[in-house]
Amino acid sequence: MTDQVDVAVVGGGIVGLATAYALTLARPGLRLAVLEKEAGFAAHQTGRNSGVIHSGVYYRPGSYKARFAVAGAAELVAFCREHGIPYEVTGKLVVATGAAELPRLAALAGRGRANGIPVTELDRTGIARHEPEVTGIAGLHVATTGICDFPAVATAYARLAREAGAELRPGSEVLAVARRRDGVTLRTPAGELRCRVLVNCAGLHSDRIARLTGDDAGVRIVPFRGEYYELTERRRNLVRGLVYPVPDPAFPFLGVHLTRGVHGDVHVGPNAVPALAREGYDWRTVRPRDLADTLAFPGTWRIARRHWRYELGELHRSLSKRAFTTAVRRLLPAVAPEDLVPAAAGVRAQAVARDGSLLDDFAFAGFDPDDPRSPRRAVHVLNAPSPAATASLPIGREVARRALAALEAGG
Known about the structure:
- The chain has a domain at 2-46 and 151-218 and 359-410: FAD/NAD(P)-binding domain (3-Layer(bba) Sandwich), CATH 3.50.50.60.
- Strands 5, 6, 7, 13, 14, 15, 16, 17 and 18 form a 9-stranded mixed sheet that branches. Strands 1, 2, 9, 10, 11, 12, 19 and 20 form an 8-stranded mixed sheet that branches. It has a 3-stranded antiparallel sheet with strand order 3-8-4, covered by helices on one side.
- Helices cover 33% and strands 27% of the residues.
- By secondary structure, the chain is of the alpha+beta class.
């Protein structure tokens, strides 16, 4: 079976679905299909995160992450309100537990203000007013941070896109891609699908789809598993809202933090360890092809050399609940190992360059309407880890803009 559409979006996570929604808004009547290899949508990064609506305080001013997170947080709250999706604007604390962290805390406050985010500096008493059980010597309160149900958001994007005429095709893994002068042919288990423009929002497999299309941007997805615990129900009262440590700028993860979700549960974590499969949600899941791809990439070894001390600590906390509890106690002294029960893990689709640097910003490749020399017929989202869920509406519009421009350029 062969059929044809104008645009095929590969990947049914929150970014792919937001892109489909944006395309239907921008071009009514567009022939559009969303292909997802799983039986349902939002099965991976979207459905396995802590549900935080990030304010944008962490990100370099002027970057995609800063601009899209700040705009996206406000838009997402309005979207949730309009569509009856559970959400709450809780604010959050960023807490310094030692004097060495104070310069980084001050720099974070400056970055937040540069991004237009209201930030309040706190002393010990101020921290205690927000979170009586949390210990720190200084902190920041970021009022615009919130929480929501991201799978429900993705489901709403899918419904709105479908109602506007998009075809949603779960169970449609892309097995091969053939680029033609007049378009792209995708081979799936159900047959061939021809499109004028391919949009790659494949998350954990985005680099592979780009290479199948002939667009190798020189980066690879190196999967990191984020392992969570949650507080037992009787101990949830230890945490009122969201509490984060001061991030280490040398590593792209935020450290073990405390997150009260929209359904009352309190997540604790994550620690970040190498995953042995792109969808490796535990140590038992090993996929030889994924592992070989990771080990064959020079950037993997350069990351290891650069961060091996940090990663040894992460591995220790992964294998030892007592070590994990010790890390949590820096923020929450009252917690004990028996207060923590395992929760679902997630895998971060982190793009890494050959030199071992981790891409710090959202990254796009393929057709660029601002560069007439860019390759046509495909648009790739190569790096969209956190805060991509928060920023999904602005990201979707940006990808849709590129895809529609590619349609016009391709004829």
